[in-house]
Amino acid sequence: MTNAPLPASSAFATPQAAFWGGVREALGVPMLVMGASFLGFGSMIRDVDWSVWHALYSTLSTWALPGQIAMAEMAYSGAPLISIILAVGFINARLLPLVASLLPHVRRDNVSLWKYYAISMLIAATSWVGTMQRLASLSQDQRLHYLTGYGLLLYTGSPLFTVAGYLIAGQVPQPVTLALVFLNPLYFMLLFLFDLHQPQKVLSLLFGAILGPALFLIAPNWSLVFTGLIGGTAAWWLGRNGWVRQKVSKELKKGRDDG
């Protein structure tokens, strides 16, 4: 994968300024949305009669909310350990393409390999989107610092919201708790809607909206996996096709001009 083009002038003066810039930009809506999601997770753990330490350990060691929810629900229902491991592994595999697509953009020659492994832990859907949107305005020596500041704030804040959610469990109606859990993926989708200049994004959202409900009727337990595999692969392949790329870009430009 080729790196994003370097800007003529960076948004920050130094790499250290880029780090704190990432912290500041994550502190707003991204932290509120992710915090609300972990607030719901902490409340859910209390509802299944686990201790606050289970909730805290899950967030610190995994920091992948869909997998954490699946783990808690399956363990509470008495599912076999191997089933839980496989389910959580499949769900969290979604983070692999995020890491693989972002790290080449922030890589630097003078950074030790172990640091990349550590920083990979800070790449979630929210930090991936926030950093990818900022790449074009960051010089190469600032990108890793920005990602670290952005992701580190979200990572360190999530356990605090998890504990807070556990402590207030029972005071919030269950439908509200469940809604909080799904705020983060909803926020991720909305960010895509505001940045649709790439055909792959348009096609992936379109295929997901069509295939998701249809496949759920056929295979509810595997619908999410099949939707992502089929829809994502089709969006990637069609997005690489020159005619499709030109057609989608033309329609998006027409929509912006009409608006």
What structural keywords apply?
globular; 76% helix; single chain; 259 residues; mainly alpha; 0% strand
Task: Describe the overall structure.
By secondary structure, the protein is an all-alpha fold. The protein folds into 2 domains: 15-189, no CATH class; 196-259, no CATH class. The protein is built from 14 helices and no strands. It has helices at 15-26, 29-47, 52-61, 65-76, 81-92, 95-106, 113-120, 125-134, 140-167, 174-181, 183-193, 199-218, 223-240, 242-258. α2 packs parallel to α4, α2 (29-47) crosses α10 and α12 runs antiparallel to α13. The mean pLDDT is 83.
- Number of extended strands: 0
Order of secondary-structure elements:
HHHHHHHHHHHHHH
> Which spans have pLDDT < 50 for at least 5 consecutive residues?
none
Radius of gyration: 20 Å
Mean pLDDT: 83
Sum up the overall morphology in one term. globular
Short description:
The chain is built from 14 helices and no strands. The protein has 259 residues and is mostly helical.
Secondary-structure blueprint:
Blueprint: H1 15-26, H2 29-47, H3 52-61, H4 65-76, H5 81-92, H6 95-106, H7 113-120, H8 125-134, H9 140-167, H10 174-181, H11 183-193, H12 199-218, H13 223-240, H14 242-258
